[in-house]
Amino acid sequence: MDIGNLLQAVLKALNDWAPAIQAVFAVVLVAITCVYVWLTGSLAGASHRQAEVMSRSNEEMRKTREAQTRAYVTLELWPWDRNFAMFDLAIRNYGPGAARDMSVRFDEEIPWSAQGGNLNDLEILRDLPFLAPNDAVLVFLGNRKHLRPPESKLEIWTGSVSFTDHVGTHETKFRINLREFDRLHWPYPGGEPAGAPPIRPGWGRIGPLPEFKQATWGDS
Questions:
Q1: Which residues of the chain register pLDDT less than 50?
Q2: What is the separation of C-alpha 161 from the centre of its chain, rounded to a whole number of angstroms?
Q3: I want to staple 72 with a disulfide (CB 3.0 to 4.6 A). Which of 87, 95, 109, 198 is the partner?
Q4: Residue of 120, 179, 117, 113 lying closest to 146 (CA atoms)
Q5: What pLDDT does residue 59 have?
Q6: Are 58 and 98 in contact (CB under 8 A)?
Q7: Phi-psi category of 5—alpha, beta or left, where left has phi over 0 and alpha has psi -120 to 50?
Q8: What was the pLDDT predicted at 213?
Q9: Contact, 134 vs 88, CB < 8 A?
């Protein structure tokens, strides 16, 4: 058989089997299309999951950055020394960011017998304009009797501190348990020794109290 007859035979066979061949190619094309659609959907799903992971990661980074730079203001009761005789109310900013427009509110009306009235009436607690990072404002409260006057049965003070920083407006809850200072005092004669370490790391020492005399008009 020469080349011409062979080509004619092949063309005749292809012509006879044309419908079947077209059907096979159609099935293959549909299969390839299905595989392409599946791969495209998988890539789209992977891209979407990756975008969600990136979004969560960016949100966590933002929260971490804000936590590392924001203010954190709370209210504490600080004793002067190990004698636990005199106390200050401390508005303390423990955060690395500055705080402004602070307001302290006690849940209960707490009498302040040292000066009269109650603690919620103190203007410095109601409107403190600014507090630098790691800074504190101290308000003298008095001695143990002033903390727990006879007219007050409260032994736990609760409330909140509202303040604003570069992140936004925040509110910090506080809880002061006055019973924590029961039976805490220097038990030996002469009071606390001058060489005793501070009660808390970072706290300064006020040293011995100076003697004051009553000032009168005309004193130089």
A1: 205-220
A2: 13
A3: 95
A4: 113
A5: 79
A6: no
A7: alpha
A8: 46
A9: no
Number of separate domains in the chain: 2
Packed helices 18-69 and 3-16: angle between N→C axes, nearest 10 degrees: 70
In sequence order, the 6+-apart residues with CB closer than 8 A to the CB of 92 are 73, 74, 75, 76, 135, 136
Query: Which helix (H) or strand (E) segment is 195 a member of?
Result: none
Do the bridges between strand 136-143 and strand 128-131 make them parallel or antiparallel, or are there none, so unpaired?
unpaired
Length of the chain: 220
Supply 174's token pair: 């506080």
Over residues 173-203, the pLDDT tens digits come to 999 998 888 777 777 777 777 667 767 655 5
Q: Tokens in use for 152?
A: 């007050």
Query: Which residues constitute the domain of residue 40?
Result: 3-58
Looking at residue 4, its amino acid is G
* Residue appearing with tokens 């600014």: 130
Q: Residues 49, 85: one domain?
A: no
Distance between CA atoms of 220 and 217, rounded to whole angstroms? 9
* 90 and 117 part of one domain: yes
Closest by Cα among 158, 161, 157, 140 to 95? 161
The DSSP line for 170-181 is EEEEEEEEGGGG
Give how far Cα 181 sits from Cα of 77, 162, 205, Å: 10, 27, 19
| 204: exposed, middle or buried (Cβ count in 10 Å: 0-12, 13-18, 19+) | exposed
